[in-house]
Automatic annotation (TrEMBL):
Pfam families: NB-ARC, Rx_N, WHD_DRP. This is Disease resistance RPP13-like protein 1. Residues 153-172 are annotated as: Disordered. GO terms for molecular function: ADP binding; ATP binding. It comes from Castanea mollissima (Chinese chestnut). It comes from the Eukaryota.
C-alpha cells in the first residue's frame, strides 16, 4: 500500500470545505433537506484533518494507520464526487428555470440526469453511505490514538532562518550578476526612490547576491547610509519600521514606540541622506502594506535605492520601480565549484581524480541551484568512499532527512505558502516527466478536466481562471520559461521532486 501524503490530502480537504460552504450548493442542500447532514460532514472532516500530520508520520511504521489514511482518501474522493453531482443538479435546475422545457439542450440534459425525484433518491442513498463510512473513520481515529496538532504534538512551522548582510567567504558564478546590480545602484536617477527587485526560485542565491552587492566597496562609498532587514513571511509594518530604523546607525529604540512615532523618527533620520536598504526575502504582495512601509523612506535624498529579494514576481510588480532582475541558475562549472568547495575544500577534482567520474552526475543533480550543490557537498564532506558518493548522488535531494538538509525546508516553504487550489494544481504536475516542456493552455485544460479549477462568484470563464492559476505558479517560480522555446514552460527538477512529494500517491 502506497504512502498517503498529508500535504495533498489536506489541500483536498480545503477544496471540500470550500464546496460545502458554496452559496450555490447551500441553496440546493436546503432544498433537499440535506444541509444538516453535510454540516456534520464538515464538522467531522475538520476533526479528522487536525490529526492528518500525526497520521502521516505514523503510517511509516503502523500499517493500521496507513490503511486508515487510504480509507479516508477514498472517502474524500467519493464525497467530492457527490458534491460535484449536487453542483451539476443545481446548474440543471437553474437552466430549467431560465429556459423553456422545449429547449433541446435542456431536454437533453434532463434526459441524461433524470428527474428531481430520481436525484433526491440517489443522493440520499449516497449520503447515507458516506455517513456510515465517515463515522467508522472517526471511531477508528480514536482507536489509533492519533493526536491533534493542538494537543500533545507540536505542529512544525517551517520558516526560513533570519538572514544577515554577511556573505560567505567563497561564492562562485555570480560576478556578472553582481556587476549588473551594482551598475543599477550606482547609475544616476531622477527618481526620489528606486526599488530594484531580484527574483528567483528558492535556493538560487538571491540573498547571497544581495550580500555581495551590499559589501561592495563602490556601493559603500556611494551611499550615506546602508541597512539590511530580513522581512520573511510576516510583513509587520511596525516591526519592519523599527528594524529599518535600528539598522541605520547610531539608532536604538525601545518597545513603547508607536508606528507613527517610529516613522517620524525614521523620516527624520533619512531626510536628505542617500541611502541603500536591502529588504531580503519578501513574500507579501499587498500594495497597501508596501505603501504604508515606504512613506518615511521617501524622505531620502535623490538616488536612494532599495533592493528587494523575492521568489514572487507579484511582489516585484508591487514594489519595484525597475524591471525585476531575474536570477538564473549557475553555470555547470560554477555549480561544480560550489560542490567541490563544500565537499573537498577545493575548486576542482585535481587532488581527487577518483571522484572525477561523478562530475556529470553532480551537474545533473544540482541543475544550477547553489543550495543543492552546497547540501550535497556538505553531505559528502565526511567521506572519501566512492560507493557512498554514488549512493548519495543517486538519491533524490528531497529524500535527504530535513535535519541534514535545508533545501527541503526552503522549497516546502514555497509550497506551504500556496492557497489550497494551487497546491492541488501544482501536485497534479507531478504526472509529467522531468524536463517535459508544456504549453499553458494544455495544462489549464488538463486541470479543468480533473476538476481542479474552481468556479467563482464572478462567473469568470473557467479557461481564464485556469490561466490565472498558471500565472500565479509561474510568478512564484514553480514553473519557468523554457530556454528552448519562449512559448513553452518547464519545471525545475527540484520543483518536480517537490510536486511528487506533495502528490504522494494521489496520482499513482
Amino acid at each position: 500500500m502506497s504512502i498517503v501524503a498529508e500535504a495533498a490530502l489536506s489541500a483536498f480537504f480545503d477544496v471540500l470545505f470550500d464546496k460545502l460552504s458554496s452559496s450555490d450548493l447551500l441553496k440546493i442542500f436546503r432544498q433537499e433537506n440535506v444541509n444538516a447532514d453535510l454540516k456534520k460532514w464538515a464538522m467531522k472532516l475538520r476533526k479528522i484533518r487536525a490529526v492528518l500530520a500525526d497520521a502521516e508520520e505514523k503510517q511509516m511504521t503502523d500499517e493500521f494507520v496507513k490503511s486508515w489514511l487510504a480509507e479516508l482518501q477514498d472517502l474524500a474522493y467519493d464525497a467530492d464526487d457527490i458534491l460535484d453531482e449536487f453542483a451539476t443538479e443545481a446548474l440543471r435546475r437553474e437552466l430549467n428555470a431560465e429556459e423553456p422545457s422545449t429547449n433541446t439542450v435542456i431536454k437533453f440534459i434532463n434526459d441524461c440526469v433524470g428527474s428531481d425525484r430520481d436525484f433526491v433518491t440517489l443522493m440520499r442513498s449516497k449520503i447515507e453511505d458516506i455517513d456510515t463510512r465517515l463515522q467508522k473513520i472517526v471511531e477508528d481515529k480514536q482507536d489509533l490514538e492519533l493526536m491533534e496538532n493542538s494537543r500533545g504534538r507540536t505542529k512544525t512551522t517551517i520558516s526560513r532562518p533570519p538572514t544577515t548582510s554577511l556573505a560567505e567567504s567563497h561564492t562562485y558564478g555570480r560576478d556578472k550578476d553582481k556587476k549588473e546590480i551594482v551598475k543599477l545602484l550606482l547609475e544616476s536617477s531622477d527618481a526620489q526612490l528606486s526599488v530594484i527587485p531580484i527574483v528567483g526560485m528558492g535556493g538560487l542565491g538571491k540573498t547571497t547576491l544581495a550580500q555581495l552587492v551590499y559589501k561592495d566597496n563602490e556601493v559603500k562609498g556611494y551611499f550615506d547610509l546602508k541597512a539590511w532587514v530580513c522581512v520573511s513571511e510576516d510583513f509587520d509594518i511596525l516591526r519592519l519600521t523599527k528594524e529599518i530604523l535600528y539598522s541605520f546607525p547610531p539608532e536604538s529604540c525601545g518597545d513603547n514606540y508607536t508606528l507613527n512615532s517610529l516613522q517620524e523618527k525614521l523620516q527624520e533620520k533619512l531626510s536628505g541622506k542617500k541611502f541603500l536598504l536591502i529588504l531580503d526575502d519578501v513574500w507579501c504582495e499587498k500594495y497597501d502594506c508596501w505603501t504604508d512601509l515606504r512613506k518615511p523612506l521617501e524622505s531620502g535624498a535623490l538616488g536612494s535605492k532599495i533592493v528587494v529579494t523575492t521568489r514572487n514576481f507579484g511582489v516585484a510588480s508591487t514594489m519595484g520601480t525597475t524591471p525585476p532582475y531575474k536570477l538564473e541558475e549557475l553555470s555547470c562549472d560554477a555549480c561544480l565549484r560550489v560542490f567541490t568547495h563544500h565537499a573537498l575544500d577545493a575548486t576542482d577534482f585535481s587532488k581527487y581524480p577518483e571522484f572525477e567520474e561523478f562530475r556529470q552526475k553532480i551537474v545533473n543533480r544540482c541543475k544550477g541551484v547553489p543550495l543543492a550543490a552546497k547540501v550535497l557537498g556538505g553531505l559528502l564532506r565526511t567521506t572519501r568512499n566512492r560507493y557512498e558518493w554514488e549512493h548519495v548522488l543517486n538519491s533524490k535531494i528531497l529524500d535527504i532527512p530535513e535535519e541534514k538538509s535545508s533545501i527541503f525546508s526552503v522549497l516546502k516553504l514555497s509550497y506551504n505558502y500556496l492557497p489550497s487550489y494551487l497546491k492541488r494544481c501544482f501536485a497534479y504536475c507531478s504526472l509529467f516527466p522531468k524536463d517535459n516542456e508544456f504549453d499553458e493552455k494544455d495544462i489549464v485544460l488538463l486541470w479543468m478536466a480533473e476538476g481542479l479549477v474552481q468556479e467563482t462568484k464572478g462567473k469568470k470563464p473557467m479557461e481564464d481562471l485556469g490561466g490565472d492559476y498558471f500565472r500565479h505558479l509561474l510568478n512564484r517560480s514553480f514553473f519557468q520559461q523554457s530556454s528552448n522555446d519562449e512559448s513553452l514552460f518547464v519545471m525545475h527538477d527540484l520543483m518536480h521532486d517537490l510536486a511528487q512529494w506533495a502528490a504522494g500517491d494521489l496520482y499513482c
